[in-house]
Design brief:
The complex is a heterodimer of chains A (248) and B (218). By secondary structure, chain A is α+β, with helices and mostly antiparallel strands. Chain A has 2 domains: 109 residues, Ubiquitin-like (UB roll), CATH 3.10.20.30; 130 residues, Alpha-helical ferredoxin (Fumarate Reductase Iron-sulfur Protein, Chain B, domain 2), CATH 1.10.1060. In chain A, a hairpin with an 8-residue loop joins strand 1 and strand 2. The longest helix of chain A is centred in the C-terminal third of the chain and has 16 residues. Chain B has 8 helices and no strands. In chain B, 25% of the residues are buried. In chain B, 79% of the residues lie in helices and 0% in strands. Chain B has one domain. Classes of the chains: A alpha+beta (248), B mainly alpha (218). The interface between A and B is large, with 48 and 40 residues. Chain B: This is Succinate dehydrogenase / fumarate reductase cytochrome b subunit. Chain B: InterPro entries: Cytochrome_b-558, SQR/QFR_C/D. Chain B: Keywords: Membrane, Transmembrane, Transmembrane helix. Chain A: Its cofactor is [3Fe-4S] cluster; [2Fe-2S] cluster.
């Protein structure tokens, strides 16, 4: 397969970036998208050029490290997959592929296609946890009855890998889907209800401080999410927030 | 105003003000529709709305505040959303994951706002001048004639029709979306959202019918 790649190159966070075109040949259908970039980088290194920097880790679709806006969509044209699980069979010989970093003020570019997603970590630190005394007095979680429906919804919310595709897809660069998944996974369980008020208030405050946009319910985040996190989580977070505000 | 400083509070405020305006729209449509089959009923309703103390002194200012709040908040949200992505994508395929109307509420909203300017110029300012500045004597039969006279012009009628199309586009996303914003998303919400989509088409289509009815019948 012969392709034309148009890739965002940016030396560092302060440098001005630009799109650079790279022709590439010998790409096989069974390669993953990241393997295709590996091939490109081997060629660049062989020529003495700087390789294209991009994030990756597990390459199994579970860690949330890989990102990339591919032909105008986060994680590319496939659904419910991360970039590492996107295969080149989704493209045709002769295609031009535009590859950009996830764009958001709260996700500044570090280099080329790598963006700083630590704003997600700070939202998580603001309340995405439960406080449990682990000094020998821990109650076995299985001894606390949980409604099956709630347990399923909580688990579904907990499958969010924090990749940032929701922010990248949203026209407003809103982080509501991510934050709502993290709020929901605890709000639905008895263990999470003790700190429910502080959690939602602190996580939403941190989300706003990071400079993410406002949700306008376009639904793009849900469609592009590699884990299929539902918009219902955003409605739940809105309820939790209103309830917390009412309780003061 | 502290609560408005959070993104969720702004969403909820936008949704609630929008829902209030949607309610008003339904009431406005009901009264206007009577003009197509009973000028007397239309005059009675209009006279009541134009002279009732509760409507004039309380509901009207609340409505004007609601309109101003909704569009000012819309501009504030748009400004913040634009600042959340200062560098645009070279390639962005919004149509693959969201509807055009959901992504362009600001533009459909601006058209509706411009229409409100025309609508106030046509009806509200003359009405205020007639009653409170010129202090003319009360006339319970003048409303139907004033309405019909406005739709003689094909240009004005065309502008009204076009504006109602944009109003439908704005409501098609906005009305249903407001339930999600206030946290209402369950099996009942799904039915309510379907109703909202129908309302968003039927009410503006009804306003278009009224405008065309008076244009072609007088």
């Amino acid at each position: 397969m012969k392709l034309t790649l148009k890739i965002w190159r940016q030396e560092n966070a302060n440098a001005k970036g630009k799109m650079v075109t790279y022709p590439i040949d010998g790409i096989e259908d069974d390669m993953s998208f990241l393997e295709m970039l590996d091939v490109l980088n081997e060629e660049l290194i062989a020529k003495g050029d700087d390789p294209v920097e991009f994030d990756h880790d597990c390459r199994e679709g579970i860690c949330g490290a890989c990102s990339l806006q591919i032909n105008g969509e986060p994680h590319g044209p496939d659904r419910l997959v991360t970039t590492c699980q996107l295969h080149m069979r989704k493209f045709k010989d002769g295609d031009t592929i535009v590859i950009e970093p996830f764009r958001a003020t709260a996700f500044p570019v570090i280099k080329d296609l790598i963006v700083d997603r630590s704003s997600f970590d700070r939202i998580q630190h603001a309340g995405g946890y439960i406080s449990v005394n682990t000094s020998g007095n821990t109650i076995d979680a299985n001894s606390i009855p949980v409604n099956k429906h709630d347990a399923d919804d909580s688990f579904a919310a907990a499958t969010c890998i924090g990749c940032g595709a929701c922010v990248a897809a949203c026209k407003n660069a809103s982080a509501m889907l991510f934050t709502s998944a993290k709020v929901s996974q605890y709000a639905l369980l008895p263990q999470g209800q003790v700190e429910a008020v502080e959690r939602v208030e602190n996580m939403v405050r941190q989300m706003d401080l990071e400079g993410f946009g406002n949700c306008t319910n376009t639904g793009a985040c849900e469609i592009e999410c590699p884990k299929g996190i539902s918009l219902e989580n955003i409605a739940r977070m809105n309820r939790e927030y209103l309830s917390a505000t009412a309780k003061g | 105003m502290g609560i408005i400083s959070s993104s969720i509070a702004r969403k909820v405020a936008m949704a609630l003000s929008g829902l209030f305006l949607v309610l008003f729209l339904g009431q406005h449509f009901t009264i206007n529709l009577t003009s197509t089959f009973s000028p007397e009923t239309f005059n009675e309703f209009s006279h009541f709305m134009g002279t009732n103390f509760l409507v004039q002194a309380i509901l009207q200012p609340v409505l004007i505040f609601g309109v101003i709040f909704h569009f000012v908040m819309g501009f504030i949200l748009e400004a913040r959303n634009r600042s959340a992505r200062k560098v645009s994508y070279v390639s962005y395929k919004g149509n693959t994951n969201s509807s055009w109307v959901s992504r362009n509420m600001i533009y459909t909203g601006i058209v509706v706002l411009a229409f409100l300017g025309l609508h106030f110029y046509d009806f509200w300012f003359p009405e205020i001048a007639y009653k409170y500045i010129e202090a003319n004597p009360s006339d319970a039969t003048r409303y139907y004639g004033e309405l019909v006279e406005k739709f003689h012009s094909p240009v004005r009628t065309g502008l009204y029709v076009l504006s109602f199309v944009f109003l439908a586009l704005h409501l098609y996303h906005g009305f249903a979306s407001s339930f999600q914003s206030v946290g209402f998303n369950n099996k009942y919400a799904r039915g309510l959202k379907k109703f909202a989509k129908v309302y968003a088409i039927v009410i503006p289509a009804g306003f278009i019918f009224i405008a065309l009815f008076h244009h072609f019948n007088h």
